[in-house]
Design a protein that fits this description.
The protein is an all-alpha fold and 327 residues long. It has 11 helices and no strands. Helix 5 crosses helix 10. The longest helix is centred in the middle third of the chain and has 41 residues.
Length: 327
């Protein structure tokens, strides 16, 4: 089963969806962080998040006719070698990202972690688009897009600068732990491309998203089992339902990223999601602050610069710019 019908998504609408997908990421991080604090175990919280996400996407797959058709088509896709079989395990990259969070955020802080991850993500996305690894084929890395990437990195550093603290004064101590989020960011671009390729073949995001959560949950469950065998594990779970919304946020951004990769390319999808991540963090700071500082001016200005970077990256090759001379 392949998707043969031509489809078109206007770039502004695609970027709006990328913003929404990106905004779900800090929401998931905040919920999972609160759950990890409640349980006293970040790995346990991540496993619960992946588990609830898996349940949600399985329900969606069962309810949607296109989802059921897509899941049934997986064996045929593997027999036809429509894509490499290991694309089904792209979700292991998500588990690697969670691993890196649990291992180094306490060492380098969330701000440095974000900068390292975004740097890797933009680099990986440029590699994917430049080599044609993604479902949208080879997309030129224009000068404008390079400038947009530099602006985006500057926007992220600016937005998180109030949280950097002493990190800038001691960069040598951070280089080794920063490798985990940096490499995780590079791999994220390939994860988006692999999910997008599957989505293009099936004509629905459901099969790729299902296997993302299956693979990620399996990796985390094995790690949690080892942790339980070594140090023991308690299951004093909270009763409030909002503690379990992290999985729903994960379903939202993984499925949207898989859908958008074909239409926008991996680089533009990633930049749009990064901008959405900053805007989502800004909204969380305003509505659900974790300290007395509230919304910081640097975060607002960095988020605005991120939107400008996305707008610049969305300019199509050959398009007339406002400063071009008219005929």
């Amino acid at each position: 089963m392949t998707q043969t019908r031509a489809s078109f998504l206007p770039v502004p609408l695609g970027l709006l969806l990328a913003f929404i997908a990106g905004a779900a990421m800090p929401a998931q991080g905040r919920v999972n962080g609160q759950l990890g604090t409640y349980l006293g175990n970040g790995m346990q919280a991540a496993t619960i998040s992946f588990g609830t996400g898996l349940v949600i996407i399985l329900i969606i797959a069962a309810l949607l006719p296109s989802g059921r058709r897509g899941v049934r088509a997986i064996p045929g896709a593997l027999r036809a070698k429509a894509f490499p079989w290991w694309y089904l395990f792209a979700g292991a990259i998500g588990a690697y990202f969670v691993f890196s969070q649990s291992l180094v955020v306490g060492i380098i802080g969330i701000a440095v972690f974000t900068v390292a991850n975004v740097t890797g993500q933009t680099l990986g996305s440029m590699i994917v688009d430049g080599t044609g690894f993604g479902p949208g084929g080879k997309r030129p890395i224009t000068g404008l897009r390079v400038v947009a990437v530099v602006l985006m990195l500057g926007a992220v550093v600016w937005a998180v600068s109030p949280q950097l603290g002493d990190a800038v004064a001691h960069p040598g101590q951070l280089l080794l732990p920063m490798l985990l989020p940096f490499t995780g960011g590079i791999l994220n671009g390939f994860q988006t491309a692999m999910n997008g390729t599957q989505t293009q073949y099936y004509g629905t995001f459901v099969p790729a998203t299902v296997f993302n959560f299956v693979a990620g949950f399996a990796v985390l469950a094995i790690a949690l089992g080892i942790q339980a065998a070594v140090a023991g594990l308690g299951w004093n779970l909270p009763r409030e339902p909002w503690y379990y919304l992290g999985g729903a946020c994960g379903v939202l951004f993984i499925s949207l990223a898989a859908y958008l990769a074909k239409h926008l390319g991996v680089l533009l999808t990633s930049l749009g999601m990064i901008a959405g991540q900053l805007l989502g963090s800004l909204a969380l700071d305003a509505l659900w602050p974790t300290d007395n500082e509230g919304v910081r001016l640097a975060t607002v200005l960095g988020s605005l610069l991120a939107i400008a970077a996305v707008a610049l990256a969305s300019v199509q090759p050959g398009a007339r710019m406002p400063w071009d001379k008219r005929d």
